[in-house]
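Hi R.,

As promised, here are both runs. First protein below:
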Amino acid sequence: MAFDRLRRLNARAVRDSAELVSRLSPGDLARPTPCAEWDLAALLGHMTAQHRGFAAAALGRGQDLAPWAVRPPGARIPEVVADHRSAAEAVIAAFAAVDAPDRQFALPEFTTDRTFPAIQAIGFHLIDYVVHGWDVARSLDLAYDPGPELLAAALPIARAVPDGDARLAPGSSFKPGLPGAEGAGVLAQILTALGRAPEWRAGEAVR
C-alpha cells in the first residue's frame, strides 16, 4: 500500500473511533466491551495511551515508556472525550510528519528487540483502530461502518497478524482467531481473524 494512502486511511480510522467516543454519556464507562478483560473505561485508557505511544514513536521517542502508560480516564465525560480526541489528533499529526516509509519506530509494547519501519508500524495502528472502533460501537450499541476502502486495506493487515500464544497474554488487544468467516463480509472477516465474535452484544463476555 502506498505510504500516503496508508496514513490517510489510518487518520480516517482514528477519527471514526474518536467520533464514536464523543458520543459517550454518563454511566457509559462501566459498560462491558468485546474485550472481555476491559470495561469501556479500560478500553478507552488503552486506546488513548496507544495514540500517545505511537505518536512518540513517530517522533523518535518510542523507547520512552511514559507515553505508553495507561492512565485510567476520569469520571467526567467531557474530559474523557477531550483527552482521547487530543491524543488521536496528536498521533495523526505525528504520522503526517514522518518523512519516509522506512523511518524506524521503537514499539516497546510489541518488542524491545527490534524496531519497525513506519509503513508497518502505521499498519499496526490502523488495524488496531478499525477493530477498536468496532469495540466502542458495540459497547455503546451504535452503528459502525468504516467504508469499503478502509476495510479492504485493513483485511490483509488483520490476516498478517501472527495467531499464536502471544494473543493469550493478559492485556493482548487480540485473541486467537475464530472460525466461521467464510462467505462473511469484510468487517466480519477482520473481526474473526483477530478473535472477535461479530455477533457480540453488550453483556456477553466473549471476544
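And here is the second one, sequence first, then its C-alpha cells:
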Amino acid sequence: MIRLILTLLLVLAGAPAVAQTASPEPLPDRLVIAHRGASAERPEHTRAAYLLAIEQGADVIEPDLVITRDGVLVVRHENEISETTDVAERPEFADRRRAATIEGRAVTGWFTEDFTLAELKTLRTRERLPALRPASAVFGGEEPILTFQEVLDLAADATRRTGRVIGVAPELKHPAHFAALGLPLEQALVEVLRANDLTSAEAPILVQCFEVGALETLDDSIDTRLLQLISPVGGPADRPELSYADMITDEGLRRVAGYADAIGVEATLVLPRGADNRLRPPTDLVARAHAAGLKVIAWTFRPEALFLPEDFRRGDPASPAYASTPGDLAGYAAAAWAAGLDGVFTDLIPPVVATRP
C-alpha cells in the first residue's frame, strides 16, 4: 500500500514513473541480410525463420512477395506454392492445379493468385529443400503463410524488443506477370508501406526486384531505398533488349543509379570461381558500382558444400551426404567482406555476423 501511494504521489507531482526508452541502435553500414530468414535452419519465410535470424544477429530480414486473388501481399519464394506448402495434399484445392507460363517458363502447380488470403491461411508451410536440409524439414507443417504486414509487424516488434533497428528487404517476384493479371505488386506494396509510414529514404526498408520497370515505378512513387537484382546470365524479364551484363558496365551502372540505390548481385560477379570451383581474385565491380553511387550486396551465402567454392568445402566428396555437409561459411564470408561488399544475403547468420569487419 505504501509503495502504491508513493507511486501516485510521483505521478501527481509530474515525475516520470517509467524511464523513456532509448532510440534503437540504427542499421550498420554493412548489412547481414537473413535470406528468407534463417533458412538453413528453419523453413524459409516462416515466423520461426525470421525470429531465429534476428536472435542470431541479422540486421535485415528478407521476404519474397507475391499476391493473392484478393490483392494481399503474402510471403512465398514463388507464386507456385507446391514446394513450400502442403497444398498438394489438400483435396479441397485439387482443382486449382493448373499450368501457367511465368516469364516464358512453363510451370504446373498451385498459384497464389488463384487463392484468397483466407484460403492460403489454411495451408501450412514446409521446407523447400528437405533432402539437403533435413534438420529444417522437421519443422514443416507448423506454420501458416505470412502476409507482408505480418513481417513488418514482426520486425517492428523485434526492434522494440532488441533495441536495434531490424530492417526488411522485400523482393517483388514477377511484377510484370501479376500486372498482366490486374494485380500490380507495386501498388499493393506502396499502400502497405504508406500505412506503416515506411516510404522515406530513412525507413529501414530496401525493396528489391530483378525487373526494372517495377523499381522505376516505385522510384516515382516513394523515397524508400531500392535495389536492382542482377544475375550472371540473362536479363530483366520486362526488358528483353537489356542484359544483366549490360547493367554492370560503367554506363549500365550509371543508368541503374538513376532509379536505384544499390545492386544485389550473385556472389560470383564479385568473387569469381575458376573451372576448378576455387576462388579467383575479386572483380572490380564493387569499386565501379561505388563510383556510380551504388551500394553492392551479394547473394546468396549458404553453408552446404553444394553451394560453396572448393576452398571452403569440408567433408568427404565420396560421401552420399557430401552436398549437404557444412563447410567453412565463415571463411567465405570473410572473403566477401574483404572484397568491400556493403552487405551479404545469407541462409546462415552467425558466421556472417562473426566475420563482419
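A quick note on the second one: DSSP finds 13 helices and 13 strands in the chain. Let me know what you think.

Best,
J.
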